Amino acid sequence: MDMDIITQASNLPSEIEDLTRFVLVGREKLVSVRAEIRAIDKLGLGKEVRQQKLDEGQMIAEALLDAEVRLGELTREIPKASGARTDIEPCDTAVERLTKKDILADLGFNPKQAERFETLAKHPEIVAQAKAEAREADDIVSRSFVLAKIKAKEKETRHEQKIERKDTSKADASGYKLLCADIASGLPEIPDNSVDFIITDPPYPREYIPLYGHLSALAARVLKDGGSALVMCGQSYLPQVMNELCKELAYHWTLCYLTPGGQSPSLWQKRTNTFWKPIIWLTKGEYKGDYIGDKISSPVNDNDKVHHKWGQSAGGFTEIVEKFTNPGQTVLDPFLGGGTTGIVCVTMKRDFIGVDIDPKCVETTRQRLMEI
Q1: Is residue 15 helix, strand or coil?
Q2: At what angle do helices 100-107 and 111-122 cross, to 10 degrees?
Q3: Per-residue pLDDT tens over the stretch 226-262
Q4: In sequence order, which residues have a C-beta less than 8 Å from that of residue 352 and are 6 or more positions away?
Q5: DSSP assignment of 33-93, as one string?
Q6: pLDDT digit string (tens) for 84-135?
Q7: Strands (E), 186-299
Q8: What is the pTM of this model?
């Protein structure tokens, strides 16, 4: 088996079960080789003996990394669960439905190990760089060394993205598209998988609750994989709103949108003065973006009711757009209202799609955008 590990490095097994055995046996062999090198150093044996063992360790370590990259490519294709809905029972309860965790356990791995493999698979260039650096240093490359380099690179990338969010100098002027349409139609004018973010503030009264279900269906179609929907809503019917939104999207988090000053309404039927609104953060697939603070604050008394009776603060929405999006990305607001989201997006050089069932709202927004 010693030679098998080495000779298969450039010709990895194609089946996931064979790759798993390859990795498990290879790890044991690498531990043994490292122990032999330590013993050689301790006994002060000849350099030639040590070099032979070092060469063997380098070949095994690099072969293992290649195998783990391939495992990561395969495991990320395994669905996390048998279906998208987890709040209902399957029709045929006699059929056993395996989760990704079950499949990994059968292979001998846990989800954390699979996550490491998948991280390696996303960064093959860093894996190759780490191999070269280890050989140049006359050392044996390790997975922990590669993962540390990946973590440092991701941190650097997040820092660059934060700078990019505030730097619009390199972005072309944003384009925009306005539609007068009913969200219940599904908005076929908007292509599938074409939107990076939905940022919207639908109506709050009870009779509009079904609109949140239409929004969920629309977002599931038009958002890119990993895209987010940020949905501002009231609190009177929050459970019903959540049920509608989560029909086809995954709940991620609830953001706190502060509304200080006189813009905070009194809800007499609830005997409550409210100084904040929830923004429900939902995703299509897994969110893999930057860390985001969950508090957003509208400037004091900055609510804009001039262009629409339910208008929101441009200052508050500017913070939302800056926190989440980058110049050149596409933002959709299917409840356009007075156009606050559109004004902010176009000003900050995001491409914008605005939709409203009321032609007056569409025209108001069009006029405001033409003045920018």
Answers
A1: coil
A2: 90
A3: 999 999 999 999 999 999 999 999 999 999 999 877 6
A4: 174, 175, 176, 177, 330, 331, 332, 333, 341, 342, 345, 346
A5: HHHHHHHHHHHT--HHHHHHHHHHHHHHHHHHHHHHHHHHHHHTTS-SSS-S--SS--S-T
A6: 434 334 444 444 557 888 888 888 898 899 999 999 999 999 999 999 999 9
A7: 195-200, 223-232, 250-258, 266-267, 272-273, 276-283, 295-297
A8: 0.60
